[in-house]
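ARCHIVE CARD
Drawer: 12
Card no.: 0347
Subject: one protein chain, sequence and derived structure
Cross-reference: see card 0346
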Amino acid sequence: MATHSVALLTHGDPESVKSWVIRWVCASVGNDPIDLLTDLTQHGCISGIISELIYTQDCVAFYARFEANILEIVNEFLESTGETFGEFIHHLRPEVFDLVSLKTTLAWFAVEEIAYQLLEGRDWFYQPDRVSSQQANAKWNDTNQICLEGENS
C-alpha cells in the first residue's frame, strides 16, 4: 500500500491550520483520532485539550503564523451561514474586547472548525489513485497507521 505524507494528507499545504491539526492528532499517539477531534469540537480549545493553545501568547503566535488561512476559514464560515463578522464574534465569544482576545478566539475557532470538517469527511486523506475508500476509512480508525504513514514518506 502506498504511504502518505502530511503534505499529501492535507492536499499539499504543510503550512495550513489543517496540516497543523493533523500533525497534532498524529502527535497524540495512543489516542483515538476520532475521540480527539470529537472532544475538540464538543469542548473547544478553551478546555485546554491542545496544550499548544492554552496560553494567550501561544494563541497570538499561532494566529500570526496562520493569519491568512484563519481568515479564509472564517470567511468561508461566514459565507455559509450568512452571519456578519460582528454576529459571528458575538455568538462565538461575546467577551471579546481587545485585539488579543480576538486573535485568540479566531485561532481557536479555526482549529475547531478544521476538526469539525475532518470529522465530517473521515475519508479526508482518501486518494482514489492510491487507496480505496474502504482502506482509507479502515486506516482512519488506526491513529498509529495514519501517523506512521505520514512519517515514513
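Annotation on reverse: Residues 3 and 10 are 14 Å apart (CA to CA). The helical segments are 6-9, 17-27, 33-43, 56-81, 85-92, 99-120, 133-140, 143-152.
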